[in-house]
Amino acid sequence: MSFWLPVWALWTRDLVRFWREKARVVGYVGSPLLFWLLIGSGFGDLAFFYPGALVLTVMFSAVFSTMSLIEDRREGFLLSMLVSPAPRSSMVLGKIAGSATLAWLQGLVFLCFVPATGHTPGAAALLEAAAVIGLIAFMFTVAGFVIAWQMESTQGFHAVMNLVLLPLWLVSGSLFPIAKAHGWVQWLMRANPVTYAVSALRAPLEGHAGVPGPAMSVIVTASFAAVLFAIATASATRKTTRAFV
Amino acid sequence: MIVSVENLTRQYGARTALAGVSFQVRTGEIFGVLGPNGGGKSTLFRILATMLAPSTGSASVAGFDVERQPAEVRRRIGVVFQSQSLDKKLTVFENLRAQGQLFAMHGRALAERIEEVASRLGLADRRNDLMDTLSGGLRRRVEIAKGLLHRPTVLLMDEPSTGLDPGARRELWQYVEELRDRQGITVLVTTHILDEADRADRLLLLHEGKVVAEGAPADLKARIGGDVVILDVDQPALLLPDLRARFGVEGVAQNGSVRVEIGNGHRFIAEAVEAFPGAIHSVALHKPTLEDVFLDETGANLT
């Protein structure tokens, strides 16, 4: 049975839907943009808060677009996937590719505001930033998939978003650097995968290496995403013994 | 036998949804599964559609075991869900195309097949409409088109008339009968609606996870024989001994009336009204329905 056709089917489906609901961009890019302008202007440092706000945009988009999985599986398009001979792994990849692409595109929209920070990255740095945004989009999408697949309701998903993902973002170096954090928070930041995502983005945008270093940041982010992807595939291909009701 | 189910059980924790169900479906027939909500129909449907594993027992579709060879089964079944399984933001064509791609269909062959199925279901001029803009009856037709796209040999339908008006329901059944007659497709349909069950070639009555009767609708109704008479009286329980003594019939008392199954209803009514002057407020007579069959077998009402 073909592996790539189902992936293509799901990926194009997400892109077409997105194109028909372009207004969603305003929602996902709008609120991080507002946070950034308010916090950045308040502290008088738009540049420092910019990478964190961009990561927040990508996180919102990736996580909310995987949330559709919960409803989709019970009452929607994914129902027919579950009774089709298409391999489950292609379903996982197709869904993740679709949501990650959308998150990436919205990250790129946010990237257009970089001149407002006073930094002017060159073409190579911008390309690097775009690639890093793609990696971060993939990581958050896979994380969203893993959470959504375990969830029976969207309420539970919101709880995880508020109690896990947002706090992780708060201690990721988006709002204050590791060096200025006190005591145990500093350790939390070092253990937090989102810290590495934010740091990976700082390097190309600010033109100098942050803490942790750029190579280390990219490696940790990519490894974390790979581990989550393995979990996502394993949980989706596990034999179904429970009802989807 | 195109569908074969043997001693199938399914537990959800302590609750038993299916308690040892066995039956067989013949190739090319419309097989109905009738029962009240919560009777085990949906669980049976999910198991046959390979979405749920049985607790014990086995089921096979088109010769393949649903638990051990789900991919083989999936290639041969078309599934029409009770809930929507279409993407509302996509057009009819886009939905069908995505479905085809799940079954490794592509290119011209897929486009032609979509045209073929869509025109047979009267959807040809709707191909570029968004699902959102279609009526309930049209959406159900798209669901059926989707289920048929990959040329399945068995079509599984879960409560297909839910939310359809009588006109749309009649149309839907015309399509289903056409599928059976022209293409020899076997159709298994779950329902709690009597009209719908009456149109099946054979029926399985399911109650509390058990099979209570099986057979052609006409045969099931013939088992009762004669007529069903409902006598509206003040004290149903008091009338039962008299009925037994005078007419030799066993009535059943139910909320303010007595229900009697009897060979010649007309004569019985005349005699009963004479025999119990003033006691009977109103009388109703009908030929046995599947509802009566169900009541007879289970002592419970279907709806």
Largest sheet of chain A: none
Strand tally of chain A = 0
Parts with pLDDT < 50 across at least 5 consecutive residues of chain A: 241-245
Share in β-strands of chain A = under 5%
How much of the sequence lies in strands of chain B comes to 25-35%
Order of helices and strands of chain A: HHHHHHHHHH
**CA(first)-CA(last) distance of chain B:** 31 Å
Computed structural class of chain A: mainly alpha
Question: Can you characterise this structure?
Answer:
The complex is a heterodimer of chains A (245) and B (303). With 245 residues, chain A is mostly helical. Chain A is built from ten helices and no strands. Chain A has helices at residues 4-20, 24-43, 46-74, 77-82, 88-111, 123-150, 154-174, 183-191, 193-206, 214-237. In chain A, helix 1 (4-20) packs parallel to helix 5 (88-111) and helix 5 crosses helix 6. Residues 241-245 of chain A have low confidence and may be disordered. Chain B is an alpha/beta fold and 303 residues long. Helix content of chain B is 38%, strand content 28%. Chain B is built from eleven helices and 14 strands. In chain B, helix 8 (217-224) crosses helix 11. Chain B is elongated, with a radius of gyration of 23 Å. The mean pLDDT of chain B is 92. The interface between A and B is medium-sized, with 32 and 33 residues.
Strand-helix topology:
The complex is a heterodimer of chains A (245) and B (303).
Chain A: H1 4-20, H2 24-43, H3 46-74, H4 77-82, H5 88-111, H6 123-150, H7 154-174, H8 183-191, H9 193-206, H10 214-237
Helix pairs in contact in A: 1-5, 2-3, 2-5, 3-5, 3-6, 3-7, 3-9, 5-6, 5-10, 6-9, 6-10, 7-8, 7-9, 9-10
Chain B: E1 3-12, E2 15-25, E3 30-34, H1 41-48, E4 56-61, E5 64-65, H2 70-76, E6 77-80, H3 92-102, H4 107-120, H5 136-148, E7 154-158, H6 166-183, E8 186-191, H7 194-198, E9 202-207, E10 210-215, H8 217-224, E11 227-233, H9 236-247, E12 252-254, E13 257-262, H10 265-275, E14 280-286, H11 290-298
Parallel strand pairs in B: 3-8, 3-9, 6-7, 7-8
Antiparallel strand pairs in B: 1-2, 1-4, 4-5, 9-10, 11-13, 11-14, 12-13
Helix pairs in contact in B: 8-11
